[in-house]
Design a protein that fits this description.
Length: 301
């Protein structure tokens, strides 16, 4: 069980920095226990589990890891926690962005260095509610993942590429995943090596690499590379809610389109995803007028 400590170069909000990696409540690959964050994933060296704890009194982060991927995870701990991220590169052009950054100085963009770990759940989230996607991810890992190394028994590591490819069609259906999304995942895992190479590319090249696969569009690519690369400009387009939130926060108007959102964020070129994260952290969202979108369940069909 190797362990490391790391001295963050500045303020670090551990939970908000890494919280974007969690895919809903009960995510078998991510958990919080006694204030410590746990993450189970499949690294190039094999399965690994990482436990991370902030030690504010010492100004340090403490980490332990288990499994064949333990050293890989610990070697990349600084990148995961935003050491290569530079929040100062964003110049606030709106008061709400300035205030959000002032209130949340420790939020950094995590860089996992892993593609499929973020790509597969992002595909599951295409065109469905978050609850449906989280349920699918949870069921698929519980039934087809493997127990994560380490002492927390509930945690699971997602299948290796061949394991995803061997999931039968009725198991996708049982998890509520339609053929379009399961086919996109199968294409991704068959090209796993090519997909993982994107973790070593810049944003433009990585975007082209992922979008070369049918079934993977701009929304999925942005959601993936925000996490894989910690890309500050990977703004999500095609989202049902984000343009409306950004538009309302910056102008007070409702019904903002993707195109209008991109115009509003143009002053943050190069940092548009970071600006959007800060706006979301402000909590300024349009009041709800309609009931939530109903959750579908194709497993009942």
């Amino acid at each position: 069980m190797p362990a490391r400590t790391w001295d963050p170069p500045g303020p670090l909000d551990l939970h908000r920095t890494l919280g974007v990696l969690q895919r809903g409540p009960g995510d078998p690959a991510f958990g919080v226990r006694d204030g410590e964050l746990w993450r189970a994933c499949r690294t190039p060296e094999g399965a690994g589990t990482l436990r991370i704890a902030a030690r504010p009194a010492a100004g340090q982060v403490e980490a332990e890891a288990w499994g064949p991927g333990a050293d890989w995870l610990l070697d990349r701990l600084p990148d995961l926690l935003g050491e290569s991220d530079d929040p100062a590169r964003l110049t606030a052009r709106h008061r709400i962005v300035h205030e959000a950054r002032r209130r949340h100085p420790g939020v950094r963009l995590a860089r996992t260095g892993l593609v499929l770990e973020s790509l597969i759940p992002s595909i599951l989230e295409q065109k469905v509610t978050s609850d449906e996607a989280y349920r699918a991810w949870r069921l698929l890992l519980q039934r087809h993942g493997e127990p994560a190394p380490g002492p927390w028994e509930r945690m699971r590591v997602m299948p290796e590429p061949r394991g995803w490819a061997l999931i039968p069609s009725w198991e996708w259906h049982r998890a509520g995943v339609d053929a379009k999304r399961s086919s996109a995942i199968l294409r991704a895992v068959r090209a796993a090596r090519r997909m993982e190479e994107a973790a070593r590319m810049d944003l433009a090249d990585a975007t082209r690499r992922l979008m070369a696969l049918p079934g993977i569009g701009p929304w999925t690519v942005a959601e993936t590379l925000q996490r894989t690369l910690g890309a500050p400009d990977a703004i999500t387009v095609g989202d049902l809610h984000l343009p409306k939130i950004i538009g309302y926060a910056l102008t007070g108007r409702r019904g903002t389109t993707d195109e209008e959102m991109l115009e509003l964020l143009a002053p943050y070129e190069g940092q548009r995803h970071r600006a959007a994260r800060l706006i979301l952290l402000s909590g300024r969202v349009p009041p709800r007028r309609a009931p939530r979108f109903p959750v579908g369940d194709i497993a009942r069909l």
